[in-house]
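Protein data sheet
==================
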Amino acid sequence: MQKFDVIIAGSGACGGWACMALAQNGFKVALVEAGSHIEPFRDFHHQWPYQLPFRGAGQPGYLRRYHRGATEYNYRIMIDDADNPYTTPPDKPFRWLRSRVLGGRTLHWSRASDRFSDLEFKAASRDGYGEDWPISYADIAPYYDRVERFIGVSAAPANLPQFPDGVFLAPMPLNCAETIFSAAAQKIGFPATPRRVAQLTRTWNNRPPCHYCGNCVNGCDVGAMFSTVSTTLPPALKTGNVTLLCDSVVSHVLMNKENRASGVRYVERYTNRSVEIGASVVVLAGSSLENTRLLLNSANGGLANSSGVLGKYLMDQIGGADVTGFLPPLKDTPIRNDDGKAGGLYIPNFTNIGPKPGSSGFIRGYAMSASGGAALFPAFASGLAGFGSSYKKQVNLLYPAAARVWLSGGEMLPRKDNFVELDANVRDKWGIPVLKITCTHCDNDRRLYNDFFARAQELFRAARGEIVDAKPYLSPPGSLIHEVGTSRMGNDAKTSVLNSFCQTHDIPNLFVFGGGCFVTTGDKHPTLTMMALTARGCDLLVDLARKGDMA
């Protein structure tokens, strides 16, 4: 059996950071990734829809194998649901949007990089619902700093206690539609700021600035947006301490007689050969649900599950239908490259931040985003009546004026009856049991969404926009792709799986990095917090390993 100091399963935002941090500290690391290797200059290309066989929409029937989110541009980096199924109760849909590739979702994520505040970490102390995190903002702030300094976050200070500022590069400029929405937000008293994104506005750590090509969700070929393959993996590989194992589907964490993790078993993706490798420390750094699936599959009743809460308290964030329409001042103006950047206008949460949380009719809060202008795919055009030259003139007239306001993230309450478990009857292509996901919205989620929808229309009208579509529709859980929880952290080993450093209570040399540790989901995008927690956990791991305290 080949042996390493550390095995890391998963190469996304957390796996990439852990690999870099541990390799730079001298650990011999095996980075195990279920998906294929990626070379940005080889695999990512700028293409217009008319250059693709099916105009960017994909071959009919073929892309049905790939989940929602896959297109003719990016299907190669998205997971194939035919090989990787999951199940749900018939009346409780859940959308699990995934990719399986070196770098994971960092290759096509939205790049939104927000810090949680103590409104999230200590929410239970404010409104009495659920539990507080075992950490405060002060505990994690230095790690937010460290991550932001390394990956580069373009943003503007907002000076809002509910939306902590950080270490920023210059923000991406607002486009015309966003400028109109910003003035409208100011008029009605909504806080507003450019969206905070892990995308460069100047050269940073030997990476070039964004050139506004708009190819972000299909893979950035120059590395201007943060991803594992552009940012954390190169310095990790430079140490000479990393063995990269792609196309290797981890199925089990191996244990020894002393109740310590001793390695992992994986299945070679294209040969189905089973392989075991050993290590002194095992780190699970896949997605929240894949980490939990692996723990559930590694022991009867679940590995590191003396608390019995493994798989429980699944959360996504709340999302639904946008408010869309047109901004009259932009009609029939010159076409601009409005979707070539990652920015947008961001409206941080402004509900339930005062001394009486819940006075709005619900607890917790939400954030909104607003943008508009000409986009590569003018989605509004399919809703216009007519045909021929008059139809084309109408599309051209409205093209630069299209606008929308959407829910960036609404806090979904943690509930024990939202959970995942192994499906006893369904296995994936490699014979590994799949997850059965049971998750629904509660009344508070619905009241929060309805409040957003009313405020979104208020903002649109304040911008003097023409609303075309304002039909409320609360999306099924999973739709925002911010699934967290199921291996929550806490100080009490009887009610949590992990401690505040993402180390399992039951097995000292087993760490779980990612969104699974979240106690609440907050209204912020989760990735920056996941990476900061990974940096914090790696510091402890290094210290304990050097002291021999994990043996």
Q: What stands out?
A: Residues 527-547 form the longest helix (21 residues). The mean pLDDT is 94. The radius of gyration is 23 Å. The longest strand covers residues 274-284.
